[in-house]
Amino acid sequence: MPSKSFIKSSFIYTVVGSLPLATSILLLPFYGNSSLLSTADFGLLAIYIILSELAKILFTFSADSFLGFNYIHYNNSKSNLQRFIGTTSVFMLVYGVLMLLLFCVLGGSAIKLLYPGKNISFYPFGFLSVLTGLLNGIFKAYSTLMIYREKPAPFLWSNIIHFTLVLAVSITGLYLYPQTLLGPIWGRFVGAIATFLWSLTYFVSASRFRVDFNILKKLLSYSAPLYLFGILYWIVSNIDRYFILGLLSEKDVAIFDFAVKLTLAIEFLQNGLSSAIYPKIFQIWKKNDDVPHGNVEINRFFHVFALITVVGIPVLYLSVPLLVPLLVNNSELYASFNLLPLLFAGMVSRIWYYYLVAPIYYFKQTKVMPLVFGFAAIFQIASTYILIQLNGIDGAVWANLLTKLFQVFLLYLFVRRFYTLRVNVKKLIVFPAVYMMLLIAAEIFLKPVNIYLLNLIHIVIITVLAYSFFRNELKWENIRTALKK
Q1: What is the Cα–Cα distance from 228 to 370, expressed in whole angstroms?
Q2: Which tens digits make up the pLDDT trace of 272-322?
């Protein structure tokens, strides 16, 4: 069993790093209030937020990753550090502004071409969204650098400022200007401005904007594949909303996006667990002379990952129809409950995703990631378009699940070429797969069944399987021993 330090580190990594995720969850009761925001506007807001995320990727050229991962190589002198930070920050500002100008010229025409007859435009909300993406990209670079400089205080407070402003301005704006997107869009924009100015102040003082063209060449070489990967990751994660908007309606975007947001608690949990697990298993590989194979010690961490995920999903699934109506009064959004079984099945597949990605990162095989996500993006685009045409919004959910499974399959094909997989089949494959099959069966055969009864049946089956497969890990003496470490 993982030790008490594992639980503590999971909590620490999760809280601050996942504040943007927490913002999305905390704003749901307000976005889902029909007197503050219509269902169609909820859908358009999702489109603008995703556009902002794309801008954050496009406008920074993954220079934020270069700044964080290469900090240690330039920390040997003040002069080197100034040139390193200065070159990276100046590049992000110049490249970001040029990309922003390009969006200003082409954005309006592109939206009219792609979505004729839809109630969506580039000005003003599209422009504010891409500008927010640029500002958030600079702040992300600053936050990444603070992590690698081991400066938790500025990292913590800058993220809290951003979190507080986004919540405060968004909620205030919704009440001052109901049935418009002014509050949510300006809330994100004001938060981005504040933390951009915070970041810019640091970059100026730390670098005096000194530029070194040799460092710039290294930045371009290092960041180019990560840039491509970032774009592909965005496509796999978000392109379905744009297909739903084009082929269906703004309301369908809202229902699908709301369903995805209901699964964020599991994503929040998985991100925190993986952030805590990876350093532990990296140490195990290092202790074993970097031999690329799995072992029992590594598997134990992923067994816990699988157990927590599979137990957590039915608990959340059971809670959703009980709690959401208490917090969200827009009954049109309740249609999202029908989409949850397949979305949760996709979250189960992330158990295998995180297991396979770990050796890729540790053994420096990251060149496979753009390939995997490139093929996955093509699969996502084709399957989403075809399945939406055939089955509407349900088709989008099936495409989401199939893409996640296709990703796992591709990762398996690549990872087994350099890494010897040694897994406990019952705990890491059969246990998650059984629950995934239950969720898929619920979608295909049991839709008329009461959702509470269905989840109670799932919980009973999962409890029996969990005790059968994990009885040793669940013994009280083993848990007590682990917590004392």
Answers
A1: 7
A2: 788 778 878 888 888 887 788 878 888 888 888 898 998 899 888 888 888
Average pLDDT over residues 52-56: 94
For the chain, domain boundaries: 32-239
Average pLDDT in the 119-136 region?
A: 92
Read off the pLDDT of each residue in 357-370 and give the average, rounded to a whole number. 84
Q: Is the predicted pLDDT of residue 1 greater than 70, yes or no?
A: no
Cα dihedral sign, 23-53-49-187: positive
